[in-house]
Amino acid sequence: MNLKRLSAVSVGHLSIDILNSSVAMILTVLAVPFAISNAQIGFGVMLYSLVGSLSQPFFGLLADRLSGRWLGAVGLLWTATFYAGATFAENYTFLLVMMTLASLGSGAFHPQGAMVASAAGKTRASSATAIFFLLGQMGLALGPIIAGFVLQSLGLAGARTIAIASLPVVAWMALSLHRPIETATEAAPAQPGRRPAPAPSVDRRLAVILAFGLLVALRATVQQSYYGLLPKFFADQGFEPAVYGFLVGVFSIALAVGTLVGGILGDQLDHRKLLMGSMLITTPFTYAMLVVNGWPYYILSTLAGFLLGIPHSVLVVMAQKLLPKRQGLASGAVLGFMFATGAAGTGLVGWVADFVGMAAALRWVALIPFLAGISAFFLAKQPQPQPVAVTSPVAGSD
After folding, report:
1. E strand map for 10-90
2. Per-residue pLDDT reduced to its tens digit, 200-237
3. Domain ranges in the chain?
4. CATH classification of 3-179+204-382 is 3.90.1170.50, yes or no?
């Protein structure tokens, strides 16, 4: 692996996702002084994610043109700047505008980052991408914890320090990623004595694409709903920001570890079976973590987060293999779709929570991984080369 490039882009992912995961914390802390409802919290998280998501295919094309240079550092700097500007908010509208502008930097960073990480991994693209996403997931985990302590002690003004702390990472990325990445290589020729598996029919390809999209959307809805709405779920139970930031962080750290393990397993196991198994097993734990207290919560949320994280990097690598010479576009498309559908789902769950309560709404969300596992069943099986009989030459023949 090219560790210089991989480490720079991965630490950048850590930094930008610390900022990203603090948005729900800020909205929750301001819920009382700004009179923000559950629906407005869900809408704020949804809008932040949607703008950052829908812009990713465009930024993915730009990343292909720049060959992985500069865009990640600029994206992180952009997000940090508008994130800091949001701390001066005096009303919900101004906060929403600044946070929405900040999300464009995240949209620029992610497709370029996934593209650089995959290229840095060379023959171990899935493992390298998993390391990249591990640091991102760690950022999502640390964001609520850091923001909880900072917001509780210093208020919105203290959150500016989180943005300022990312500036050295901007410089590191700019210095480390100024060279273009290597272009994708051509597919390896077929091995002698083997023939490729027959191409699937049009209907089968369409079914696989639909199943893949549904799997991405369902899993993203669970992940982003938990990230965006668990703070309010715990706040409704009377927990302080520092406490519920830690509770959300436990789930997020476990999800980060699951992302790393999933990427490593993705280099060795059948993707379809890995995705199906992890999603089907997740459901009991995503539900149970919402109905327990004390030490059982830590065990159950750890298992839920770990299993939910396994498919993340595998799904991105699967998309990149479809467009080996347009990995920026492929990364931007799958990540954009992932974040957009998750954001839409979070907004819907927040709206429903105003009618049935946050606890009831999240319990329905907890059942979604089972549907994602069923969707994985319809994915294409990884092709297995089929041996072809080879006739030995007859002794004495010309």
Report:
1. none
2. 555 667 887 888 889 999 999 999 899 888 888 988 88
3. 3-179+204-382
4. no
